[in-house]
Design goal:
This protein has 488 residues and is of the alpha/beta class. It has helices at 2-7, 10-18, 25-33, 43-49, 94-105, 137-142, 151-170, 218-223, 228-244, 250-258, 276-289, 300-308, 318-322, 339-346, 349-359, 378-395, 399-412, 418-430, 434-447, 452-464, 468-487, and strands spanning 39-40, 69-74, 80-85, 112-113, 115-119, 126-130, 184-186, 192-195. Its EC number is 2.7.11.1.
């Protein structure tokens, strides 16, 4: 029981939900530090992993026609990898290739699909990275089947990408070659990550841009060289992709923006799902990135700061926003749920309400509320009245009033009641405020650590927030605690 208390402490609640899209550079790095360090693979290992570089394993955009093909592979330890195989003449000097690969391999971030190794036997030059199982941004934006990407998720992609570029820049790797919607991949949790393959040129002295020249930075057309500012220009084209759900040439987009027709840019599938202010701000950021003069473009750090303030639904996990099903670990034996547990798993709020009304305040017995004679004042009477009014509103299903009254009682501070926290928690759930509800369920557990109701309600809140695995774990703890309680 102690483990559950510490795992779902209020600190966890604030860091997990409030800060889910607010990570410092050092936090971003931590995400990659569990990964193995950069290493060298043998050609035999990579042949075995990719089934002999089978065409069935190709995952790159242009298949076998691409100058550098990417394969999906599986190592002996069942770890999935992405293997990029360069054209035989791309890196004639193996030492130069290894040096460049090692430099990229030193990067470790939650925002990158990290490079974990390379191979340079004979004429072969191969890079090995973490495999991202949930397709590319291009697939989710341009070729979606079930649902268009949600506005909140598009804003998250923009932020995470800016954070990835800022992280790389802080590590002295500011150049990224041919940044486009195919370079952004989604991991198993549905979080967007920037492919580390773009940190290396396609060859020692080859072209950096393989896409249509209409999308390349103006200075690249003049000099053939990529600069830090060129990467920001490409970031601007990606903001246009996110806004429009299409790949629009920057010149056309800028004409629309200058003509104050920016709403013409917006993806029609998003109609009614974003505020004009947010759209205007994203258009403003895109047009700053697409300035003809490189020196007038913002840097990645300032872009990340601007995008942070636009984030929506920060507490909702990416896989929920993306509609990606999560694998749940099979339970060793089926959990025998109580009626309360069943109601929480189904998120049947009406059934939970009936159970809470039936329990009443009997579980508050034994909670220390030592009150000196002096405390029996008008304030005390007001506090008790606010609880009474809250209970009346709760029974009448007037949940907004119940929240107000219970808040007055809690803020009064003269008495502590886990049941009041439980009732306000359900009132928050009834009014579609699951984050606030989870805070109350946790407070109820702090006040009364051996109370199964607090854990059941936490599970309902976590289900409501789309945090399926955590909800199942908490539900199991609540069920076990109730069984233990019934034995005694």
């Amino acid at each position: 029981m102690g483990g559950r208390c510490s795992k779902f402490s209020l600190c966890w609640f604030h860091s997990r939900l409030k800060g889910s899209v607010n990570l410092e550079s050092s936090d971003l790095e931590k995400g990659g530090k569990n990964e193995p360090s950069f290493g060298e693979f043998s050609l035999e290992q990579l042949k075995a992993a990719t089934n002999g570089f089978s065409s069935d394993n190709i995952v790159s955009e242009h298949g076998e026609k691409a100058p550098n093909v990417v394969y999906k592979g599986k190592l002996d330890n069942d770890r999935l990898i992405a293997v990029k195989r360069f054209n035989k003449l791309a890196w004639p000097d193996s030492r130069q290739f290894l040096e460049e690969a090692r430099s990229v391999g030193n990067l470790r971030s939650e925002r990158l699909a990290n490079l974990i190794g390379c191979c340079y036997e004979g004429d072969e030059r191969l890079l090995v990275a973490e495999f991202m199982p949930n397709e590319t941004l291009a697939k989710h934006l341009f070729h979606w089947e079930k649902q268009p990407m949600k506005w909140a998720m598009r804003l998250r992609v923009a932020l995470y990408l800016a954070e990835a570029l800022d992280y790389c820049s802080s590590k002295g790797r500011a150049l990224y070659h041919d940044l486009n919607a195919y370079r952004i991949l989604f991991d198993k949790e549905g979080n967007p990550r920037l492919s580390c393959f773009g940190m290396m040129k396609n060859s020692r002295d080859g072209k950096s841009y393989s896409t249509n020249l209409a999308f390349t930075p103006p200075e690249y057309l003049r000099t053939g060289r990529v600069t830090q500012e060129s990467v920001v220009y490409s970031f601007g084209t990606l903001l246009l992709d996110l806004l429009s759900g299409k790949h629009i040439p920057p010149s056309h987009a800028l004409d629309l923006i200058r003509g104050k027709n920016f709403l013409m840019l917006m993806d029609s599938a998003l109609e009614g799902h974003f505020s004009n202010d947010d759209g205007t701000e994203l258009v403003r950021l895109a047009s700053r990135c697409l300035q003809y003069e490189a020196r007038e473009r913002p840097n990645a750090k300032s872009l990340a700061t601007s995008l942070m303030s636009l984030q929506k639904e920060a507490e909702v996990p990416s896989h929920v926003l993306m509609g990606i099903a999560q694998e749940t670990a099979p339970s060793t034996q089926p959990l025998s749920l109580t009626p309360f547990g069943e109601a929480c798993m189904r998120l049947d709020l009406t059934a939970i309400l009936e159970i809470l009304e039936k329990i009443g305040y009997k579980d508050d017995e034994g909670i220390a509320n030592e009150l000196s004679f002096q405390m029996w004042t008008n304030q005390m009477q007001d506090t008790l009245n606010s609880k009474k009014h809250g209970d009346t509103a709760f029974r009448a299903k007037d949940f907004t009033t119940a929240i107000d009254c219970y808040t007055q009682f809690i803020d009064g501070g003269t008495m502590v009641s886990p049941t009041v926290y439980a009732r306000r928690c359900l009132s928050y759930l009834m009014t579609d405020m699951p984050q606030e509800a989870l805070g109350d369920a946790m407070q109820a557990q702090v006040v009364s650590p051996e109370w199964p109701t607090a854990l059941y309600l936490q599970a309902a809140c976590l289900f409501s927030l789309g945090m399926e695995n955590d909800a199942q774990e908490t539900l199991k703890d609540g069920t076990n605690l109730e069984a233990k309680r019934n034995k005694n």
